[in-house]
Design brief:
The chain has 176 residues and is α+β, with helices and mostly antiparallel strands. It is 26% helix and 27% strand. It has an eight-stranded mixed β-sheet with strand order 1-3-6-5-4-7-8-2, with no helix packed on it. Strand 4 and strand 5 form a beta hairpin.
């Protein structure tokens, strides 16, 4: 009897590879090429602005600051003060600064302060400035406005006593 070869499983044909991964890779490569070829546009976030102090008396000064304009110029308008042009605070012009003096006859209440990046028609942001009733204090800065006459007299007496005591001590040392 002739030897029978061992039974082998029937040969299977190789399975064709799915084209899906190849298509996915091709689409990803095409998207990268298209993205690289498109011009780059810088998207700036909305600017943020501040007025400091936020509450001021007529005749007082406020500091103005805007960040995120993406320009080297901005203007600020309000019913509380004249138009102000802001200048860059650094070389990248990420912050623009300026100062304004509130009108001495500004009405008390809230005033809109509008910051416009790059001038009229640019991105804008509005904040509020509160003007308090009354005039800005000058001279002594209001340091004696709330003191009574008796308090001023006591303070003057103590200052004079300190001066007389100092002169007495210096003369006594000089004589010794």
């Amino acid at each position: 009897m002739p030897a029978t070869p061992l039974a082998q499983p029937p040969a299977t044909a190789p399975r064709p590879r799915s084209a899906a991964p190849r298509r996915l890779m091709t689409a990803a490569a095409a998207a990268l090429i298209v993205a690289a070829a498109m011009p780059v546009t810088l998207a700036h976030a909305a600017p943020s602005a501040s007025v400091s102090p936020t509450t001021v008396a007529p005749g007082g000064r406020v500091a103005l600051n805007v960040a995120g304009c993406g320009t080297k110029e901005a203007r600020v308008t309000s019913t509380a003060f004249n138009e102000v042009r802001l200048t860059p605070g650094n070389l990248e012009a990420t912050n623009l600064f300026g100062n304004a003096t509130v009108f001495s006859n500004a009405s008390a209440g809230a005033h809109r302060v509008t910051f416009e990046c790059g001038g009229p028609g640019g991105q804008s942001v509005t904040v509020s400035l509160q003007v308090t009733p009354g005039a800005a204090r000058g001279g002594t800065g209001g340091s004696i406005g709330s003191m009574s006459t008796a308090q001023v007299a006591v303070g003057g007496t103590l200052a004079a006593a300190a001066l007389v005591g100092g002169v007495w001590v210096l003369r006594r040392r000089a004589a010794a």
